[in-house]
User: Fold this.
Amino acid sequence: MTEQEWTPTDAEIERRHDAIRTAAERAGLDAVLVCGSEYTGFEGAVTYASGFRILHRYAYVLVPVEGEPVSVYPQEARWVGDHGETFVSERVFAPTPGAWLRDRFREGGLSRVGVYGLDHAMPVRDYRELADGPAELVRFDEEFDLARAVKSEEELRSVRHSMEINRAGVFAVSEAYEPGRTEAELMGAAEEVFAARGTARLTMDMVLTGPHGAVTPEMTFPSATRRVADTDLLIYGLEVAGPGGHWVEFSRPLAPGGVSDETARMMEAYGEHYEIAGRLLKEGSTAEQVHRAASQPFVERGYRLGHVTGHSIGMTMIELPRIGEGTEVTLRENMVFSMHPHVISEDERTCLYFQETWRVGATEGEALSGVPPRLFDGSETLAGVTGGG
Assistant:
């Protein structure tokens, strides 16, 4: 498929902007300022609202409740990225974007502006300009994410394509496996697939490795010098966004020599977690209900959870709501979540962590990889496990 095939239709663009404006009106705002930066996985809000893919630096999209959106870029990035991708017609290249936005707020009579990315994406130089301006800045991350949480059919097509790419990369690692190769060489097998299929920079790869069928809790970069042994447990945590821009997460443990007794118990709990997630990731459940039930197999075995049980995922790698304690958000059909409990033994010497991306269904969840929660031994092929490529 060509990149043009992943350009949203006019109806999809209008749907996105209408959703943002509706959320803004509900919160009593005059506009929403969408921030995105080169920080891996956090470019996507700008892509969602404008179509632009950030190659370097950062960008904004201002979506007023009344009037047309405008894309704002730092002037030094004028020739960085393909601005022809942008479906917002007004595009501004400002020496200091914050100063330009401050003046636009004043000219447009915007007194209350919701900001997505105020804490983690907006550069300090722009915040200084806006903080002295006429508009009150309101944190708007949760409201923005909830406005885009239910995926359209166009978006789900992109999500599924991203999963095809991610899945192919996971199986490429398994097929490339042999004792004596380095961790980085095996990761390279996945990255070759990802790059060839159009992920560009939108991959986030990490690894947990350890001897004798067990791994410690720390997630690391793959080593270019450490050579794997046939008794190692290898967990390549692979997260990608395909050419449509939607992130997915999928991985499975690779253990050619088997796993330790502790890891086997964790794997058993993961199987129970997977079944519970499938039952509860449905219209009408709350995020907290899913968390409590899906984490119970680990809790009742005395394990700790070192990472959030799950989170919404879309054109930003980590979106709200989270699947976790205190999240009372009610799930709706066609929300998409990554589920990846980080299970840690009481002595913190052993862990298990792997990912699955789910679509919330009307009556049950859909695991988008189509791959059971099982251990790989290095003999798996994509066709052999899923029946196709």
About this structure: The chain has a mean pLDDT of 93.
